[in-house]
Amino acid sequence: MVALGIQALLASQLAALVAAKPASSTPGLNFDAEFGNKPQPFTIHVDQTFINETKAKAAKTRLVVDMDQPDYVDGVPSNVVGNWSRYWAEEYDWRKVEKSLNEDFQHFTTTVKAGENYTQPIPLHFVHHKSNRTDAIPLLFLHGWPGTFHEVAGIIDLLTNPPNDTLPAFHVVAPDLPGFGFSPAPSYPGLGSREMGQGFNDLMAQLGYTKYVGQGGDFGSHILRTMSPDHPDSLVSILSNLFNVSPNSTDLERFAKNQTTPEETSLISMLTDPGFSWTAAYWDIEKSVPLQVAIGLTDSPVAWLAWQYMGMRMLSPGYEWGTEEMITWSMLNYIQGPYGGFRLYKEADREGILAGVFPYVKQPVGVVKYYGDAGYDVPLEWAQRQGNITFFRKKTTEILGGHFPATINPRGLVEDCWAFLGRQGGFWNEYLLLMIFFVSYVRPATSHAVMARKGSPKVRTGCITCKARKVKCDEAKPECNRCVSTGRKCDGYLPQKQDKQRLWPKNQQLLANTTRTFPGIETRNEGRALQYFCDVAGPFLSGPADRYFWTHLVMQFANFEPAVRHSLVAISSLYEHLPSGLPQGTGSQDQRLILTHYNAAIRELKTMTAPEKQPLVLLVCILFICIEFLQSNDEAALKHCKHGITMLAQCGAGYEWTRQFLEPIFRRLSLFPFFFGREDSHYPSLDALSGPVPKSFQSFTDARSMMDELFARSVRIMRLGDDYRVGQLRRQPFPDSLYNEGVAVNSLLDTWDTLFTTFLSTDSGCNTTIAERPSIIAQQSLLIRFDVCRIMADMAVEREEGPYDRHLERFKNLAERLESLASSIPIVAKGGDTRPVRFTFDMGFMPVMSFCTLKCRDLKTRIRFWRLMPALACARESLWNLNLMTALVRRVIEIEHKIQVEDDGKHTIPHSSEPPTERMRIRHLWADSMPTCRVIHGQTIVGRVAGFLLSDEDGNIHSRTEFFDDMDYNNG
C-alpha cells in the first residue's frame, strides 16, 4: 500500500536481516527453501515449531482497554482483536492452508540479478502457470503491500484458461516481492523498485519470455513503471490499478483560483485533507523507522494482523474481510516477518516514488480505478503526463473492486486484462497482436520442470464465485446454495460449449451475461449475433481451408477492435438469414442490425490511417468481402478484393502474421475476380501473392500454398485469353505473354508434381505420425486441382473448344477421383435450411466441378460431374450459388447435346453419340449479378438473365439468353 509522502529519507541506513545465499538451504526464514541459479520446483513447508509458537503468541495477545467511541477511529477495536486472537490460537489450521496452496499453485524458486546498481543476488519465490493455448501471452503479475503471490488465486484459471478461445490466454508469472511471502528479504540496502524490476526482467528471461506484459497495483504498479525505460523491448505494456501522479504547480494554482475540474478538486482536496495526512503518516512510520516498527509486529502475530488490516480496510472500505482470509494474508508475510516489506517504503522514499516521481512510460499503459478503491484517483489528463495512456477506465457504479481487485473482484480484473493486455498489451502497437502469439515471443524454456498439479483433478464446473474461491459448488441455478447460504453474491455460470448442429430460433437462450464472454458488446442482439457466429457461422466459413482465421483469429480481434466486432455481427446476421442473405430479405429489425453494424465498421475503418494499422485494415477488408459475398454483391466484393491485394503488396511483407494468416486467404480470394469480373480492370495483380519456388515441401501447407498460387495463375491465363476467343480480339493472335505464361505454369506444375510425390513418399509425408499426416481427402483435393490446372494451362491459347476432347481421359480420371472423394465425405444433412453448411467464404469444389462439367463433352462423364455437384459443393461458396450453377450447367448440357436432363441425371436419348460439333459448343456463359423482374403468364417473377455464347460458321459470336427463376435455384 502506497500513499504520497513528504518526509525526507533518514541519513542512516539500517542493517537488514540475514537472507539466502544462492544455491543453498536458507536458515532463519521459518520455511524450507533452496534458491539456485535457475528455476526449480518448490513446495511450501513451514517449520512446525514456528507454527506452534505463532499460535501460542496469538493466544497470549494482550488486549488494549479502548474507550467508548466509534469503531476504527483510533484503530482496530479490542473486541475484534480478541476474536482474531482466539480464532488464530484455537481454530486456524495453517497446515490445511499450506496443503491448499501447494495443490492450487505451481511453485518455483530461483535467484535473479538486479544489474550493476545492486550486485547482490536476489532469491525469489514465484508461481508459474502456463496456458495450454499456443497463442498465450506471457503476463508478469506484481502485487503490492501487504500482498503476496496468493493474490492471483482468483484470476489464474481464467487468465490461463479463458471461457472460450476467442478471449486472450496468458502464461501467468506471479513472484513474491523480496521480503514478502517466500521471497527472502534483502540482505543489503539499495534494493528498490528499479532494482526489483531488473530482477523480475531477469526472471522472465530465465523462463524464456523475451517479451511480456505486466499487471500491477500498489507497489506492483510502481515497479512496472520504473521497469519501463530499462526494458522497452521486453516489457511491452502495463495495466495498472494504481497510477500515482502528483499535482504540479499549475494544478495547485488553478485549485487556489477554483479553476480545477471537479475531479481535480476532489483529488487535491483529499491530498491536503488532515484525514489523508493522518493516513499518509501511518505509512510514513514504515519508511522512517521500518526496523523499529518491525520489532514489535514481528513478536506479535495479532498485532501484525491489526496493523495490516487497518490499512487494507481503509483502502477498500466496502469489502468485508473474513477472519480466515485476513489471518492467511497476515501469516504469509508473518512467516519471515514484516521488516522486508516495511523497508520497501524506505527504498521507495529514496527513489522519490512516495513523492510521485516516476519515469515517463512510453509503452502502452492501461489505467483502471476500481469501485471501492479509496486510494489515488488520478485524472486522465494527469496520467497522460507520465505515460502513454491508451486504456482508461473508472468503475464507479459497478461491482466492488477496491484496492485489491484480484481478490475482491477477480472477474473484473481478468476482463480488463482481456480487454487491454489482449489488445495494446498483446504487442498491438509493435506487432499488431499476433506477432507475439506466433512469431515474437520465445516459448518458455524447458530447463525447469513444471510441477504437475497435486491432489484431485481440478473441477471446471461450478459458479464463477465458487471457482474464484476454489471451493466446491453445489451448482444450483440460477444462484448456487453455497453462495446464498454464506451471504455472498453468486456471479452465475460461465457458458458451456454449444452443440454446433442445434437449431437457433430467435428465442434461443442467450448466455447469462454475454458482455462477460464478448467484451465490448452493447445490446443483447449484438451478443446473440456473436454467440451465433462462434457456434454456427464461424466454424463453417472456411470451407475446405484452415478454420483458424474464422474460429480464433477474428474472434480474438473482435474482443478489442470495434471494426472487427461490428463486421462479425453483420456477417453472423446475414449468415443466419441465408439462403438469400440479403438485407432486404430479412425483417426490419434484422435489417437495421445488419446495416447499423456494417456502417459502424466502415466508420471505424476510416479512422485507421496510421501505417501500423494497415495489417488490421487488411483483416477488416476480408470481413467486408465476406459481407458482400453474403449479399451477393459482386461489384463491391471485387473492389474490396482488388484493394486488399494491392494493400498486401504495400505493407504485408513487413508483418509475419499477415504472411501467415492473411496472405493465404488473399491468394485464394484472387480466384473469384477471374470468375466473376467482367473486364480486365477487375483482375488483381498476383505479384504480391507469388512466393519463391521451394526446393522441397516441408509440410502439407507448403504444397497447398503453391497449388493455390498455380490454380490462380491457371485461371488467370484462361480469362486473359477469353478476349481472343469470344471478345473483340477473337480474330487477333494470342500474345506471346500468354504463351510464355502457359509454359511457365506447366513447368511449375511439373515441379509441384515432383515435390508432392516426394513429400508423400518420404517421412515428411505419409510416413509421419497420423496426427501430422495429410488426410486422403486433402491429398485428393490437391491432385484434382493439379489435373484441372494442367487442362487450363494447355487450353489457355486454344481458340476453339474441340481441343478439350484430347483431355477426355484426364476428365474421366477426375470424375473417378471426385466420386471417390464424395464417398469419403460424410453427409450430415441435405436440402433446404437443414444443410449444416449454408455458405463458405472460400471456394470449395464448385469452380472445379463447374469447369469439368462445362468443358468435358463426353455426355456420360459430364453427367457424372453434374450429379456430383450437390454432393461435394456447398449451397453458397463465395459468390457461387450451387443451385444456380447446377441449373446453368444443366442447360449447357441440354443445349449442346439437344436433350432434356432430369433432376436425378437421367436424360432423353441424344441424336448422336458423338461429341457436340464446334458450332453447338457453348464457349462462355454469364449470369446477371442482380435479379430482375419479368411478367410470365400474368405473374411477376423475380429471376436472373443468363447468356450462353456460341460461334457461327463465320466465327462470329452470338449470345443466347434465358431467364432463370430465382425460386428455382435460390432454395439451397
The tally of strands reads 15
Report the uncertain regions: 1-26, 423-459, 495-517, 580-587, 763-773, 827-835, 968-972
**Helix count from the secondary structure assignment:** 38
Assembly form of the protein: single chain
CATH homology group of one domain: Alpha/Beta hydrolase fold, catalytic domain
Give me the Rg, rounded. Answer: 35 Å
Q: Structural class from helices and strands?
A: alpha/beta
CATH architectural group of one domain: 3-Layer(aba) Sandwich
Anisotropy-based shape: elongated
> What's the CATH class label of one domain?
Alpha Beta
Compute the separation of the termini in Å. Answer: 65 Å
Residue share in β-strands: 5-15%
Average predicted local confidence, pLDDT: 80
Helix content: 40-55%
Biggest β-sheet, characterized? 9 strands, mixed
CATH topology of one domain: Rossmann fold
Largest sheet, spatial ordering of strands = 1-2-3-5-4-6-7-8-9
GO molecular function: DNA binding; DNA-binding transcription factor activity, RNA polymerase II-specific; zinc ion binding
Pfam family, one: EHN
Keywords: DNA-binding, Metal-binding, Nucleus, Signal, Transcription, Transcription regulation, Zinc
Protein name: Zn(2)-C6 fungal-type domain-containing protein
Ordered list of secondary-structure elements with their pairings:
Layout: E1 40-41, H1 48-59, H2 78-90, H3 94-104, E2 107-112, E3 122-129, E4 137-142, H4 156-160, E5 170-175, H5 193-206, E6 212-216, H6 219-227, E7 235-240, H7 249-256, H8 262-272, H9 274-288, H10 290-299, H11 301-315, H12 323-334, H13 339-351, E8 361-369, H14 380-386, E9 387-394, H15 405-408, H16 410-421, H17 424-431, H18 434-440, H19 464-469, H20 481-485, H21 514-517, H22 524-541, H23 548-558, H24 562-576, H25 588-606, H26 614-630, H27 634-651, H28 656-669, H29 671-676, H30 700-720, H31 722-725, H32 736-761, H33 776-795, H34 808-824, H35 846-855, H36 859-872, E10 876-877, E11 880-881, H37 882-897, E12 924-927, E13 932-936, E14 939-951, E15 957-965, H38 966-969
Parallel strand pairs: 4-5, 4-6, 6-7, 7-8, 8-9
Antiparallel strand pairs: 1-2, 2-3, 3-5, 10-11, 12-14, 13-14, 14-15
